Amino acid sequence: MHESSDQQQAPEPAGTPALSPAGQARRRLATAGVAASGVLLTVASQPGMACDICRSPSGFLSGALQSQQAQKTVCSGRSPSYWKRSSNWPNHLAKTTKFSALFPCNSAFGSYKNATLQQMLSGQSFDNQKIGQYLVAAHLNVLAKLSSFQNLPMLQNIWKEFQARGYYAPVAGKRWYAYDIAFYLSGTMS
What is the CA radius of gyration of the chain? Predict the structure, then answer.
């Protein structure tokens, strides 16, 4: 996990237990959201790090300020483990489809190129931060109409930018590294 250069970690008061990596990521994302929008954002923490984000990356950081038109958001995303076991995949997408058919891979990410969607959902040693695993699950959620705030071009953009820079910038000045991206995507799933 990388820290962005624009964030400073405040020392913990004496007697405060150390945060787990997940706790540190939640704190970093919450801080990023407050800094980006000036609005306090609360993410419900549940067992297994599941949370109710249900917003695009920029909407997540903006505190999901509402526009004039209310749109019904569908947020019933399923986890990678659900899709790995499921026999109810969207009809036009085969489990043997290559990851790179949906998420083109540059040479630095060659290990991802030949992995199938089913293999990615099962977890791969080269996907140690689980970004590929969660991108596949997020895409299946979109196809199954379990997520209305995401789409394939948005997910592909996250992957493309991550490959090019080593991070994804959901808003100007903020950087999400692999762990942060996987954390955001996992928060859109139950």
Answer: 17
Beta-carbon contacts of 168 under 8 Å, excluding residues fewer than 6 positions away, are: 57, 158, 161, 162, 175, 176, 180, 181
> What's the pLDDT tens digit per position in 67-82?
444 456 778 899 999 9
Say what the pTM is: 0.67
d(CA 97, CA 24): 35
3-class secondary structure per residue, the chain: CCCCCCCCCCCCCCCCCCCCHHHHHHHHHHHHHHHHHCCCCCCCCCHHHCCCCCCCHHHHHCCCCCCCCCCCCCECECCHHHHHHCCCCCCCCCCCCEHHHHCCCCHHHHHHHCCEHHHHHHCCHHHCCCHHHHHHHHHHHHHCCCECCCCHHHHHHHHHHHHHHCCECCCCCCCECHHHHHHHHHCCEC
